[in-house]
Every structure is written in structure tokens, then in C-alpha cells.
Amino acid sequence: MADGPCSTGFEDVYLVNNSVPELSIEDIDLSSCFLSKTLLYPLVINAITGGTGEAQQINRSLAALAREHGLAMAVGSQTLAINEPELRTSFTVVREENPQGIILANVSAASSLEQALQAVYMIAADGLQLHFNIPQELAMSEGDRDFSGVIENVANLVEKCPVPIIAKEVGFGFSQEAAQRLYEAGVRCFDIGGMGGTNFVAIEDRRQGLFAHEFDTWGIPTAMSLGEVQALEMSVKLIATGGMRTALDAVKALAMGAALIGMAGSLLKIMVTEGDAALKQYLQGYLYRLKAGLLMTGSCNIAELQQKPVVILGKTAQWLTARGIDVNHWTRS
């Protein structure tokens, strides 16, 4: 994994401390409804891996964690398993481990309907992530070069797929314009996937990619992308993903309008370097800090949090203002 050198932009986002919240930590309810099921916490363990024996064990452990804590989970790209059926167990293990939970399938936005359906049925998915990763593809010597016809393809998948479609950026962020086009194609859920987390362009260049590290800072930071899409005031669900390493950043993103938070790389790093027990301990602490963040703003649930004032300064405010977005939209009380 390669992080940075980019910021998520959340250092420019401030929540207002409430010294008299009149709440107990036991009053904080972080449950949310997503894809007609209830999550205990607004967290998606996001697309990470699949297709190998090691990936199978990782996915099993993450699925168990999601089941135990009432979280959603997305698998990594299933394209390899669609083409090589013997690799499917590294994905099907997720549904086996979490039979009642929210599981998201994952394929490219350019995938055919047949591929999309195979991905969904493979894991009895509740939703389908269509990932958008143009900079990564262009950085790969073996990557795609033709991205025409994607909007038409997405509209076809939205119409014919049996489960809801989630448009997912992988680290470069959605702009207002891209989100608007996808909304017009029928998409009603966006995983922002902004800049500031795992840097796939930098990863490709480390393995002799084509960008020579000149595009390592390409993309829209997560806070700015979230602001762009949320300001459109479309009737959609937004998932804030991309460098969401701390509970404080998660509370900021929820306050700005995200319905869920997506995490991947930081969880995987703990699992690989410290083990399952350490990851479980970390997650329990993270979820406690999420509750604490709401309490310190005087909010007992996400709906109340999204009515609290959010102050946006610095480069994030400058970006949003330059893009015609009034940052005072969030400074409510």
C-alpha cells in the first residue's frame, strides 16, 4: 500500500464543541438503514482483495468482523473470479461468514451485464459497486485506454441489475459534473473514494507504471469531493471513502452529509501486521470514538449531527468556493 503524499482535506473541516450536550454515551445511536437492512454503525469495510488463498483468509476475517459489529462489507474486484471460477471461494467466503449482513459485489463500470450479474449472484450481494479508476488504468502498461460508452453502460446496468448500483471512485474523487451525469444515468448511491488514502497511481509507478510519479497528486481530496457531490442536493446516499483513518474525520464527513464511512487500507494494515485480535480491539476503540464525537457535538444520532454547524476553512474552503459552492451551507446552527 502507498499512502499520500496527498491530504484528504478534512484538516480544514471543524466541528463546534458543545460544552453542555445533556447526553450520555449510552444515548448515542449510530445505527442507519442501508439497502433495506439496518447497520449498527455507519461503516463499510470497503473493497480490498480477493482471488488468492491469502485473500480468502483476509475476507473471512473481515466478514466475521462485519457480522460481529453490524457493519457492511464490500469485496474486491471480482473480475478475476468471473474469468477463473476456481478463485471464487475467496469471495463466497464473505457471504458464508456473514449470511444476513450487507455485502457489496464489485466490478468495473465498464463490465457487461453478464459480468455484473455473475458478481452479484456469486456472493448473493445486496448491492453492486461499479468502480471508476481511469488514472490507475492509464498508469498501468496493461491497463485500459478506451473509456467511451461508460455512461450508457452504467444506465443499462442500473436498469437491469437486480440490486442497487453504487458508483465507486477508487481514490481520485467524484466531481459535481461526473456525479450529475451518473445521477442522470440512474445512480442513487456514490462512494466518493477521494484522494488522500491508498494511492493507486503511486503503486503502479512503483511497479514500472507509465506516469513516472508525475501524477501522484492527481485527484480531488475526499472532503472536497464530498462537498462537491453533497452540494448538488440530489436525493442520494453518499459514502465517504479515501483516507478515512480517524474517527474524528469520520464524524466530520457524517456531519457534512455522508450517510456512511468506508475504510479499507488502515484496517488491512493492522490485520496483516498485528493480527485479527489487534484489529478487533482497534475497531472497538474506533466505534467508541465515533460515539464520543457525536456526543461532543450534542448529537444523539446521525440526523441530529447533520444539523450541527460545520466550519470549513483553508484549501478545502478555497476549492469549494472556486467551484461555486457556498461553504456557509454547512455553517448552520
Question: Can you give a write-up of this model?
Answer:
- The chain has 333 residues and is of the alpha/beta class.
- The protein has an 8-stranded parallel β-barrel with strand order 4-5-6-7-8-9-10-11, surrounded by 6 helices. A two-stranded antiparallel sheet has the order 1-12. It has a two-stranded antiparallel ribbon with strand order 2-3.
- It has helices spanning 53-69, 79-83, 89-97, 113-122, 134-139, 150-160, 176-184, 200-206, 222-230, 247-256, 265-274, 276-297, 302-305, 314-322, and strands at residues 13-15, 32-34, 37-39, 43-45, 72-74, 103-108, 127-132, 165-169, 189-191, 237-241, 260-263, 310-312.
- It has a single domain (24-329), classed as Aldolase class I (TIM Barrel), CATH 3.20.20.70.
- It contains 14 helices and 12 strands.
- Helix 1 links the parallel strand 4 and strand 5.
- 41% of the residues lie in helices and 14% in strands.
Question: TL;DR?
Answer:
The protein has one domain (24-329): Aldolase class I (TIM Barrel, Alpha-Beta Barrel).
